[in-house]
Write a structure and sequence with these properties.
Elements: H1 4-13, H2 16-28, H3 33-53, H4 59-76, E1 90-95, H5 103-114, E2 118-121, H6 128-138, E3 142-146, H7 156-165, E4 173-177, H8 183-189, E5 193-195, H9 198-208
Parallel strand pairs: 1-2, 1-3, 3-4, 4-5
Helix pairs in contact: 1-2, 1-3, 1-4, 2-4, 3-4, 5-9, 6-7
Bound molecules: CO-5-methoxybenzimidazolylcobamide.
CO-5-methoxybenzimidazolylcobamide binds near residues 62, 63, 100, 176 and 195.
């Protein structure tokens, strides 16, 4: 039996190899990817964040935990694929300017992809122009923005304004998310959708394009 508590411990300790090993064992035993992600990986990152906040962990520890989580998550990505045969719609996703956090954004991207969306992931630290260009170039149905910092979530309305100024606001739905973002904030800035996790992000995206 895979000892999944060791996965939690490995991520908290920032140890890539044991994180990958336990994840491999859990996959071989048929443990649901969502259980591995939500009950162990995400909780471990929460603990690391708490320690950082309490002054018991520092940036190198955040980086190492992030590396361990990403390594284990890579193994789960193929399993997040659903059995969707047709493309539901095109999604452009990125983390807003000034923000380098990408683990949650990539998880949302993988889930959307697995559930039948074509996803164009434009990375981190994304300025307004790049979001607008990507939406135009790909004729995207949904623009997804992620932010993990209270100082960068304020960039989201800037992107919405840029989309409006480009004359394409009526052609693309806008969805926002990330730890400091709330439904209230999403409504206030004029986003069309908000979700606080990768699972419900898929449901919201489907709703936005009328696929649910
Ligand atoms: Co940073 N960091 N970090 N960090 N980091 C946080 C976010 C923080 C809360 C830690 C803390 O103090 N407790 C804090 C922010 C405080 C605040 O603004 N209120 C913080 C800070 C302060 C910083 C720095 C400023 C530290 C410093 O340098 N002094 C710095 C900023 C760098 C920058 O971005 N400019 C920094 C740097 C980093 C690292 C680079 C070292 C690393 C990121 C590595 C990486 O992403 N590649 C890192 C990490 C790892 C964290 C924590 C520990 C974990 C984040 C994470 O990956 N969580 C984080 C603490 C925490 O979150 N508890 C913290 C797991 C992930 C699955 O969850 O990203 O929330 P999350 O995504 C979820 C949902 O939010 C949602 O679905 C995902 C899956 O369920 N979601 C969406 C996300 N995007 C969505 C989009 C959607 C829908 C849902 O639709 C479009």
């Amino acid at each position: 039996m895979a000892e999944l508590s060791k996965l939690y411990d490995a991520i908290v300790a920032g140890k890539l190899e044991p994180a990958v090993e336990v994840t491999k064992e859990a996959i071989a035993e048929g443990v649901e990817p969502q259980v591995i992600i939500n009950d162990y990986m995400v909780k471990a990152m929460g603990e690391v964040g708490q320690r950082f906040q309490d002054g018991k962990a520092f940036v190198p520890q955040l980086l190492m935990a992030g590396r361990a989580m990403k390594g284990a998550l890579e193994l789960l990505k193929p399993l997040l694929k659903g059995n969707a045969s047709a493309t539901l719609g095109k999604v452009v996703i990125g983390t807003v300017k000034g923000d380098l956090h990408d683990i949650g954004k990539n998880l949302v991207a993988s889930m959307l992809e697995g559930c039948g969306f074509e996803v164009i992931n434009i990375g981190i630290d994304v300025p307004c122009e790049k979001f607008v260009e990507a939406v135009k170039a790909n004729n995207a149905d949904i623009l997804c923005m992620s932010a993990l910092l209270t100082t960068t979530m304020t960039y989201m309305p800037e992107v919405i304004k840029a989309v409006e100024a480009a004359g394409i606001r009526d052609k693309v739905k806008i969805m926002v998310g990330g730890a400091p973002v709330s439904q209230g904030f999403a409504t206030e800035i004029g986003a069309d959708g908000y979700s606080d996790n990768a699972n419900s992000a898929v449901a919201v995206a489907k709703q936005l394009i009328g696929a649910q």
